[in-house]
Specification:
Largest sheet: 7 strands, mixed
InterPro entries: Methyltransf_25 (IPR041698), SAM-dependent_MTases_sf (IPR029063)
CATH class of the largest domain: Alpha Beta
Distance between the termini: 46 Å
Number of helices: 6
Shape: globular
Protein name: Methyltransferase domain-containing protein
Strand order of the largest sheet: 4-3-2-5-6-12-11
Number of strands: 12
Organism: candidate division KSB3 bacterium
Strand content: 35-45%
CATH superfamily of the largest domain: Vaccinia Virus protein VP39
Number of domains: 2
Pfam families: Methyltransf_25 (PF13649)
Amino acid sequence: MGIMYHYPQYYDIAFSFRNIPAETNTIETLIQAHSQIPVRHMLELACGNAPYIAEFNKRGYQYTGLDISGNMLDFTREKVRKLGLNNVNFLQGNMVDFLLPEPVDFACLLLGSMYIDSPADFVCHLDAVSAALKPGGLYLLEWCVEFEPVEDLEDSWQMEQDGIRIDVHYAAKQLNRLDQTYRETILLTVDDHGTPLELREEAVKLAVYPQEFLLRIAAHPCFEFVGWWNDWDLSAPLTGDEQGINRPIIVVRRS
């Protein structure tokens, strides 16, 4: 069994269900409504295969991607070369204590990619983002706050592209209630034109819950809460009465 992040071409297909143009429209609507500065330079944390990069580039944004995986960054640099994109930069590093050469106008952390396993690291992460973001700029987090208890969660889906079929199984299992930690497991079962392969990735992550998140933001000297919405839908602000919450987005602003 292989390690998922060592095969970024399959990861790319497995998570290709996103509507990138529509979600970029939502990002731009949020910027227009809530950013206090013009946005020219975007930072994506845990960028991985950088699925938004071509759309951001087409709309004229400079892009910086940060990821801890060298394999992912090599794959994405090659994608950028093939697409002929300009104004793109990548950095390899940890989202807890990274440093940028210069601050950006907007930052995002997408699809639950907050790989943090302690409250102390979460505070350090906020400190690092505040240092990387210009005052007045927005920080958007997708699915990084748990609106339902993380106990034993499972989900599965299938994606197919260019003759490659991938069955994806996601599981989250609670590890410690006091620490609010859980083990996230992603299993990809690949059929690449008849050649089978299984890829697995596991991580211990911190479950951050809504009121805890609000308290952390209120206590931080450099952030203020803007809002949160269900499933990238700005007509659906979260109230707590939803029947189901999927891919919630949260926006805070650098003060």
